Structure formats: C-alpha cells, structure tokens
Amino acid sequence: MSSSTVPRPSLEGEGFEIVVIGGGVNGVAIARECARAGHGVLLLEKNDFASGTTSRSTRIIHGGLRYLQYAEVGLVRESLRERDRLVRERPHLVRPLRFLLAVDGEHGQSALKIRAGLWLYGKLAGARWRTADEGRASRELERHLDSGLHWSVFEYDDAQCEFPERLVAEWVTEAAEAGAILRNYAQVLDIQHQDGHITGVLFRDRLSGEECAINCRWVINAAGPWVDQVCADASIPTGGPLIGGVRGSHLVLPRFEGAPQTALYTQAIDGRAIFVIPWNGQILLGTTEVPDATDPGKAVPSSDEIDYLLNCANRLFPRAALTTSDVNYAFSGIRPLPYMEDAAPSAVTRKSILYEHKQDGITGMISIVGGKLTTAASLARRCARAIGIQPEPQIEAAVPIGSASGIDAALRQWAHSTACSTGVPQEIVLQVATMHGSRAPNIVRLAAFDERMLQPLCPHTTHIVAEAVYALRREYAVTLPDILLRRVPAALGACWSTECGRMAATRIGAALGWNQEEVEWQLETLEIERAAFLRKPAPGHAARKSPSETQRFA
To answer: Which fold has domain 15-53+165-241+349-386?
Structure first.
C-alpha cells in the first residue's frame, strides 16, 4: 500500500489460542477482553478498524427506550448498565446528553403510556440520571415544531459518543498493551478445521501481499454484516443465513433554523423512530431501515431514503424548508441483525446472539450475530465466558450525571499546568485531552519537542499534526483516511474540503519525511475513501412527498 508503511513481522506458522475476525467495536472488544485475561489473541480486520458498521451508526450510547415496547427489559437493563460504565470510564468520549421525546397527538401513543414507559426507564436507570433545567429544552423545541400538529414533548437522559471510532482506537491500543496481536488490512481467506475441530486460519496481509497460515483453538467470527460471507468463504455450515442485513442511512445537515440544541427522538412520517441530534457542529438525522442483502461494503443511501429523511425533518421543522442542497453529506451502514424471515426490521431483536457452530458439527467457533455500540463490552465478556475465559470483575458504581462540571474543572486545571510546563498552548492541550483522555500526555509531549507537530491539520480544525503522528505510531493507522476519518476525525467536519486534505497531507508528510509522491498517494486515497463513505446528494430539488414512500420504510 503506502511506500512508507513499516513492514510487519510475518505470522506464518504462529500459534494463537483465539483468532477474532472483524475489527469493529464488537471484535475489538472481544480481543481486548480475552487478552486482558492473559490469553493469546490475534485480531484480523480486512480493512481498517472501525471502518464498517461502527463508523456508520447514530453515535448514541442509549439504554434502548423503545425496546420496552417489545418487552425486552433485560436488554434495556444491560444497556443502561453499560451506558453508565462507559460514561464513567470514557468521560472524554461518552457524555451524558439530554433527550427530548416528541410525539404528535394524531399518530403518537397515549401520553399515559409514554409516561409509564419513561417512569420504568427512569427506575431502571436510577435516580442519578437527572439533569438540571428540566422543561427548558422542551419549551424551546415546542416553539419550532410544526404548529399544525399537537405535540407532546417529554424529557429523559441518555448519552452520546460522537466518535465511536475513537473508542475503538483506544480499545485497540489497550488490547495490544495486554498482549494481543492486531492486524488491520488482513483478509481471512479460509478457516481450517479437522475432524470437526477448528485448527487454524489462512489470511492475506494486504500490506505485504503475504499469505499466512496460523494455528488456533478458537475462531470468533465478529465480522458484523459480513458474518455469513466469512462462513461461506470458509465452507463453514450454518444451516441458513445468520444475518438479516438492514441498511440504515443518515443525513448530516448544517444547523438550521429551529434545530434542537439537544437530542430529539421522535416519529418519522411512517411512525418509525428517528433521531435529530447535534453532532460535530452539525445535525445528524436518521435512520432508515431497509432490508439489504447486497455487499455491506457498498452500502449507500438511496435517493428515496434521502427524500424520506428530508420529509421527516421538514414535517418537524417546516420553516427550515430543507432540500438536498442543504445536506452536507449522507452515509449508510448495514446493521448485522439476526435473520428473521418476513419480520419487520424494527421488530427484529437488538439482542446479540452467540452462535456456536458445534450445532453444525464444528467445535471451536462462535459467530457474533447482532450487537450494539452500547453493549459491545458486555458482549465481549459473554463471549469470553462462552470459551472458558473468566473476564476481569466489573466495578459497579453510580455515575451522577451532573458530575461533568467537576470533570471539566479538573481537566482545565490539568491543561493549565501542562501548558505551563511544556510550552504547548493551553487551548491545544485542552483539545487533545477532550479527544484522547489519558493518552493526551503522550501527544502533548510530541508537540512540545517539534514545532511541526503543533500545526493544525487545516485552518478549520483545532486538531494538530501530533495527533496524526501518534495515530500512525501507536494506534495502527496506515493511511491518511485511517487518520482523518477514524483516529483524528477532522475530515468529518462541515468545512472539510480538498484543500484541507492537501494541507493535512503536506503537514503530516513534513513531520514524517514523506516525499511528494507519498503525499499525493495518501491524498488520493483519502479523497477516494471519503467520497465512497460520505455521499453528497445531487442538489436542486426539495424532497418528494410520495405516498408509496411511507409504505417502503414502514
């Protein structure tokens, strides 16, 4: 791939206890959990870590309020517990967020039923999850909602992870520190078994082109929407499809007139649940639910989905009069939901399933079906126990939602003292800390000893070159899109342009000694991958209002 990529040691003939296939949030969580328990782990990801479904989510850490209507109380309780843990352990990435639930009187459920659901949700969450200024956000929203409908607005609390790619990057680093071997750009070609027992894996290192056969006792297939493909390529029997892929598309919009200042959870034009969420200085709107059995790597939003989401937004905020010209970009991902024939996508369980292939005559292999960003860590613990590993004990502790102000004060104090001792400007230290948490001192030290590392990646961002260099040296980034889309996600910003990409490539290259050919190659790679991921809709028309569209997404 890149001429500057450091060659990786060959793994030909090596032995591991566990091979995890898939470097999304679930696969990385499993590798991390098993490695921390002292077991030999190899993680293989055919592209970059978190480049699939993880980076195409709605980016919220929620307990699953809507799962209560399907009586999945256990899943809600698990999600709330894991939400608390993430807020406590990763406060720089996972932050409490006030949610508004808006229901119109014509199509919504009864206020009594909603209040009952919110009461139960609050009881499961615990009284600690309460924010100040209750009611103010609701009153502000009601001023902008379509006045032709009678809206009931309720409030509750959940959390947001603006950049789950960063969460995965941190877990990747922690897995490596615990002894796991991690390889992105490593495609599994075959899973070997003998007499019904898993014996090894054959994979191709896409950086070197080498094919490696390694030995192992367990294979964990955590390939997300590619789970069935992995099984098919290796002739692993399953007795039918495990994954019922559902495409979810999102729009990223500029902040428009009346846009909520906090998260909005409401009904779409067909009664489905959608979110309107402040994100990365923009508004994230989604998602759709469209059955999709095509290649998950080629998932793109259809024009109907884009129109559907715009119609939803304009129904809520008619004064905004949004058209495709207003969309910064759209993106899609495939949810790896369990296959359920003829079931509506919204009714398919969001519980994760550990499919043990011994029922099909193969022992030593588990495929992960389903799963959520919120519950990746608990899924990893379940998977570890299923293969005979006792995970580290979990500390249960309350997380007062109001504690963020105390964290901010401590963070600012640390940033001030660090700036004084290193000479790195305080605002840069603070920005690095809010993105990288406990890893921030390593990045600040890089910036303190080289002025090139202090340069911003482009004029529109506070991210600096040192963050990019750290991603290449310590977080397994290989290419410019690995850095700018997933480790230091500046290229997800509203103001990003080709000129920004060129400046970032040039400045990173100067710090690392890239020649001009390498800079051009990295820039071209970024432009190709970003354009494939973030689609700019064709401008020039308002969303179509088609009656058939309501049926299509119901």
So the answer is: FAD/NAD(P)-binding domain (3.50.50)
Contact 290/352 with Cβ under 8 angstroms? no
Amino acid at 167: L
Contact 121, 65 (CB under 8 A): yes
The 3-state DSSP class for residue 259 equals coil
Find, among 502, 495, 510, 494, the residue nearest to 527 by Cα: 502
Cross-strand pairs, 284: 252, 277
Q: Could you tell me where the DSSP H helices lie in 221-335?
A: 227-233, 303-316
Token look-up 């929203």 returns 141
Q: How far apart are CA 220 and CA 335, in angstroms?
A: 18
Residue 464's pLDDT is what? 97
Supply the pLDDT for residue 161. 97
Residue 17 CA to residue 148 CA, distance in Å, equals 62
Domain spans, the chain:
15-53+165-241+349-386, 94-159+244-347, 401-533
Q: Is the confidence at residue 521, as pLDDT, over 70?
A: yes
How many other CB atoms sit within 10 Å of the CB of residue 197? 13
Element (H, E) at 366: strand 365-369
80 has pLDDT over 60: yes
β partners of residue 84? none
DSSP class of residue 365 equals: E
Residue recorded with tokens 């055919």? 46
pTM: predicted TM-score of the whole model, two decimal places: 0.93
d(CA 248, CA 48): 21
